Amino acid sequence: MRVAVTGGCGFIGSAVVRHLMQRTSHQVLNIDCMTYAASEESLAAVSSDPRYRHAPISINDRPALEKVLAEFQPDAIMHLAAESHVDRSIDGPDVFIQTNIVGTYCLLDVAHRYWLKLEAEKKTGFRFLHISTDEVFGHLAPEDPPFTEDTAYDPRSPYSASKAASDHLVRAWYHTYGFPAFVTNTTNNYGPWHFPEKLIPLMIINALEGRPLPVYGRGENLRDWLFVEDHAAALVRAVECGKPGETYAIGARQPRSNLDVVRRICALVDELEPDPAGPRERLISFVSDRPGHDFRYEIDPGHAERCLDWKAEHDFETGLRRTVQWYVDNRSWWQTLRKQRYDGRRLGVEK
Length: 351
Ligand code: NAD
Ligand code: TYD
Prior knowledge:
Elements: E1 2-6, H1 11-23, E2 27-31, E3 52-55, H2 62-72, E4 76-79, H3 86-91, H4 94-116, H5 120-125, E5 127-133, H6 158-177, E6 181-186, E7 188-190, H7 199-209, E8 213-216, E9 222-227, H8 228-241, E10 247-250, E11 255-257, H9 258-272, E12 284-287, H10 302-308, H11 316-329, H12 331-341
Parallel strand pairs: 1-2, 1-4, 2-3, 4-5, 5-6, 6-10, 7-9, 8-12
Antiparallel strand pairs: 9-11
Helix pairs in contact: 1-8, 2-4, 4-6, 7-9, 7-11, 9-11
C-alpha cells in the first residue's frame, strides 16, 4: 500500500510511521508541517529509507496538499495531524479550531476530490482513517460503564470539542458522498517520544530532575492508558482491514487515577535512578485544578479487538516500565527540547 500519514512527526504519528516502515512493506508519505510538538529525531531510524518521504506542509494548505496527493497517489490516508494538548486549548483555542476543524475539512475535501478521480479498483480499495480521542464522549462518573462506539458525544474542552467537530465532518463525508472514511476513538496514550507537557513524560522528567510533580486537584481523576506502540499496531490493522463508515473505540483496559500513575512513576524512577535525597514521592505537589477537568475516561475496546483481530500487548505496568527506561536512556532528546522550546509553565516548573 501507499499510505499518507498526517502528523507523522508527532507522538502517535511517529509510532505509526515507525510501525509502517519497520513491520510492513508499505510506502509512506508523512505530511507534517512541524509544529512545536513535532520531532524529526523520532523518525531518524527510518527517514533515510527510500520507501519514506516527508512533505513539510500544513493540512490547511490546499494547493500543496493537492500536489503531494497527486504525486504520491495514496491508497490510504491516516489522519493524525492535530493540536492535542487540553491545557493549551484552554489558554489559546484558536489554533485548535484552525487545525483540528478547518484543517480536517481541508484535508477531507482535497482527499475526496482526489478519490473521485481514481480508477475503479483503486477507488474501491481507498481508505481515509481519522484518528480521534475518547474525550469527545465527555466524561464518566465512577459508576458509569466505559465508553463504547455508541456513546453519545458530549465534549467539554476546546480540544475535545474541536476533535468532535472533526469526527462529525468525517462521518458526514462518508454518509453524504460515500467517501470511504472511518474513525477511531482512543484512550490516553503514553510511551517514547511523548512531548513533555503531558502528564506521564512531564512527571518522569521532573522526577529525574528532582523538580516538583504538579498533580491537578487531588489526583483522583482517572485516565485509561494505552501504550503508544499498541495503538500504532491497532491503527495499521484498521487501515488494512477496517470498514468504511465504522467506528473503532481503542483501549487497553488499564484505568488508573492520576495519583496512582504519579506514584508508580516515582517508584520506577527510584528503582532505575536512586536518589540519595530520598523517594521521589516527596516531590508530589497538589496544584490548582484544570478548569472543567474531566473526571474519568475509559473505553471498552471489545468491538475493535474483535473486528480488527487486535489486542494491546502491554498492560500499564510493562508499558510504564519501558517508558520510564526510555526517558532515562534518552535524556539528550528531552534536555534539548527543554533548552530549545522550553516554556517553564508547560513543563510544570511554575505550576
Ligand atoms: P502530537 O501533538 O504529538 O502531534 C501532532 C503532530 O501534528 C505534530 O507532529 C504536528 O507538527 C502535526 N501538525 C499539527 N498541525 C498540523 C498541520 N496544520 N498540518 C500538518 N501537520 C500538523 O499529537 P499526538 O499525541 O501524536 O496525537 C495524534 C492524534 O491522535 C491527534 O489527532 C490526537 O487528537 C489523537 N489522539 C491522541 C491521544 C493521546 O493520548 N495523545 C489519544 C487519542 C487520540
Ligand atoms: P494530559 O496528559 O494532559 O492528558 P488529557 O488531559 O488529554 O487526559 O493529562 C492527563 C491527566 O493528568 C489529566 O487528568 C490532567 C492531569 N495532569 C496533572 O495532574 N498534572 C499535569 O501537570 C498535567 C499535564 C496533567
